[in-house]
Amino acid sequence: MNASQSSRHRRVGDSPAIKWLLIGTAVAVAIALLIMPLLVIFVEALGAGWGTLADNLTDQYTLHAIGLTLFVAALTVPLNLVFGTALAWLVTRFRFPGRKLLITLIDIPFAVSPVVAGLLYLLLYGRNGWVGSWLADHDVQLMFSWPGIVMVTVFVTCPFVARELIPLMQQQGSEEEEAGVVLGASGWRIFRTITLPNIKWALIYGVVLTNARAVGEFGAVSVVSGNIRGQTNTLPLHVELLYQDYNIVGAFASASLLAGIAVFTLAVKGFVEWRQTRTLNRLQTEETA
Amino acid sequence: MTITVDGINKRFGQFQALNNVSLNIPEGKLTALLGPSGSGKTTLLRIIAGLESADSGRVAFSGKDVTKLHVRDRNIGFVFQHYALFRHMTVAQNIAFGLESLPRKQRPPKAEIQKRVSELLDMIQLPHRAQRFPAQLSGGQKQRVALARSIATRPKILLLDEPFGALDAKVRKDLRRWLRNLHDEFHFTSIFVTHDQEEALELSDQVVVMSQGNVEQVNEPTELYARPDSRFVFNFLGQVNVLSGEVKHGSLSQGNARVTLPGIQHQGSAQLYLRPHEVRLATVPAEHANLPLRIEAVSLIGSEVRVELRPEGWTSEGSDDIWEVGISHAEFNDQRPTRGDLRYAVPEVGHLFTGKDTQPETVSWAEAKSFPRVRLIN
């Protein structure tokens, strides 16, 4: 009796010393690598007072960088929202040769270094590139201007929505949609009233991640933008430029904006996750009740 | 509405799911598509519904070709094995979905839709569950909602894909009876897919037995059970005892097993198929049969006592080399057969298969029946 009780309470690895050692290590690492740098950004940005921070943020070039960054994100997110949803729909609702390959190809932007991606675009669409030279003859310039930045940002962020949706849609299957079509619903009605509500939270999650990455992308953008101050400088590039100009406060001021966006994204992500688990829990408790 | 299926072929890659299938489904009848998994029954149902397209062949409803008609426009009710209820909609919204999907001109006004939904909720005996979500319902309740949803637009044809497959035995029995009543009340032309022979025989007016993409036999349940056309149908519709051997001078033998076959002219190899209820057990061999068996197991559960026996000095072709014989509880109490006892099987009616694809010949040992049972038991 006694033996069985103690064996139930003390499972393997359930030693308090190990538990607290692991927790302590995790907390220490988190503070050193995550929380300290984040704090430093805000401390440095505010180091010369609120006034300087405001001056730096309302600087003409900084304002332009903020505007351009938001503009790029505003184009990228809807594009990848549509693209990701269509792609997830395609690979989970249809069987065709090359489907497995396509699912693998979705991950290429994650596997390839963003700098390499930027270079590829430069080689292809630059003035001397295969497509770029033809475009140049027709007076279209993609690289070193905002369309190029949007193109590489779309490339780098395109897996997020699809990656979130594919497992979910695979697991949910297509029976509900089949039921809808048997009941006479049009394709659009099925998507709007059946598919979309089922994937809503995963979709929002994918959008949050896409947006975070679109705002923060550095490598690929730096290759194709040309870093022209006031023209093709996004916020992450602007941070680097300011830093190289020894404008430390200015660099940290812009960096604090990016960090602020990141913290906000995390908060939204947390909320979305909480909503999802809450819905699931509610359904489960009501089922057992 | 009659349903005609004509020369349907369907391939999935290398796999021939349906092989030139033709069928007539009579109006107002409940037809079962029965077969083991992989026999093509679900594929056939989905082709009739329009959820899958055939490689060749045609489907007609009441003579009208619907092969090219989109599933959306076929106006059929379809019930999925796993219910496929819309998980984020309430029960009432689920049932109303079909009515609200009608083109604007045919769509009834909101009040009428609500009225129809509450009628259907009453019919499925779930009026107080209207505002619940599917996840809050039990399996049987979900399937009833799925049924109500499928018939809300008053289709003439109701197709059900293993409708009770995911339910436990008790609920399944209730729902079966309920579906039968529903069918009789509304006079749909219904087809349901099942791999459960009992379900098919009990519930349907007509059974279509399928195997490997082919239709094996179509008949009413009682006829089908009494007169299976092929070894497959015989095997599939319940337990069967087989004696496989050589026929010489009107007698089938193998090892030390022997059965005389009155009225059989065939010579050469043949198989005798016997249902558990077509065989009796005796302690001495009968004049027309010597089939020694040793009792392996006795199961008392059910209205009959089920005795499993292993052939002694010969082999059976059936499952696991086992014969199964049903005896009444009274008989059991008289004889007290126990594991290890030797018994002799006495066939009363049998079915002899001779050629490869031929129908069986029925063999009856009428005189055997006239033997007083007491004498045989000894």
Descriptive notes:
The complex is a heterodimer of chains A (289) and B (378). With 289 residues, chain A is an all-alpha fold. Chain A has 2 domains: 13-45; 49-288, MetI-like (MetI-like fold, Orthogonal Bundle). Chain A is 81% helix and 0% strand. Chain A contains 15 helices and no strands. In chain A, α2 packs across α15 (248-288), α9 crosses α12 (187-216) and α9 runs antiparallel to α13 (219-225). The radius of gyration of chain A is 24 Å and the shape is globular. With 378 residues, chain B is of the alpha+beta class. Helix content of chain B is 26%, strand content 33%. Chain B contains 11 helices and 22 strands. In chain B, α2 packs across α3 (110-123) and α2 (91-100) packs parallel to α4. Chain B is elongated, with a radius of gyration of 25 Å. Chain B starts with a strand and ends with a helix. Mean pLDDT of chain B is 89; it is low at 368-378. Classes of the chains: A mainly alpha (289), B alpha+beta (378). Chain A binds chain B through residues 175-176, 178-186, 189, 193-194, 197-198, 283, 286-287, and chain B through 49, 51, 71-73, 75-78, 80, 82, 84-89, 97-98, 101-102, 133, 135-136, 146, 149-150, 153. Chain A: The chain crosses the membrane at residues 20-43, 63-90, 102-124, 144-162, 202-228, 248-272. Chain A: Residues 66-267 form the ABC transmembrane type-1 domain. Chain A: Keywords: Membrane, Transmembrane, Transmembrane helix, Transport. Chain A: It is a multi-pass membrane protein.
